[in-house]
From TrEMBL:
InterPro entries: Aminopeptidase_N-like_N, Aminopeptidase_N-like_N_sf, Peptidase_M1_aminopeptidases
Entry keywords, A to Z: Signal
Organism of derivation: Goodea atripinnis
Domain Aminopeptidase N-like N-terminal: 51-160
Name this protein carries in UniProt: Aminopeptidase N-like N-terminal domain-containing protein
Keyword Transferase: no
Signal peptide (residue range): 1-17
Top-level division of the source organism's lineage: Eukaryota
Entries under Gene3D superfamilies matching the protein: tricorn interacting facor f3 domain
Amino acid sequence: MFPLLLVLVVSIPLSSGAQIPNQGQAKDLPVATNGEPFPWDRMRLPITISPLHYDLTIHPNLTTLDFTGVVRISLDMQEDTSTVVLHAKQMHISNVVLLAPEGIRPLRVLEYPRFHQLALLSDSVLTKGRKYEVQLEFAANLSDSFHGFYKGSYRTSSGEVR
Ligand SMILES: *[C@@H]1O[C@H](CO)[C@@H](O)[C@H](O)[C@H]1NC(C)=O
Ligand SMILES: *[C@@H]1O[C@H](CO)[C@@H](O)[C@H](O)[C@H]1NC(C)=O
């Protein structure tokens, strides 16, 4: 099993972070954990939203052996979309918001564990050429990944690691 933090920090940039899904194609879509159709059906995704910057903060708790964190991802929109797909593995995700020029809005989240993907659903369209950020809070156990956590931590841009 991959270390949890390493998966979060590395897999998002390598997968280009955010993608345009198959909008409007409901048939044969995978099913998210909540039973709704998941708007993307491939492990590898085309690059139509480019992540520009990741701002990651990690708070490990060495008593409970879990950690919480916040990641904020700047997106460069190359097409209009209302859905952003990200990779995340074995994380409890919460408080997902879109930081748009006109304000902060909550995003709905669908999870597709088979491909370790999250779909972030906006109730309004994210417009090509504008700058947006998405922010996610996450939590996970350090457990067996304790050593991997520290090995992986060098990649954090603004991590708090003790
Ligand atoms: C770790 O978790 C314990 C139990 O919830 C809590 O009492 C403690 O304050 C936490 N420590 C840190 C550094 O967050
Ligand atoms: C950590 O593991 C415990 C026991 O398996 C589980 O109940 C808890 O939800 C996990 N916490 C996180 C943040 O994954």
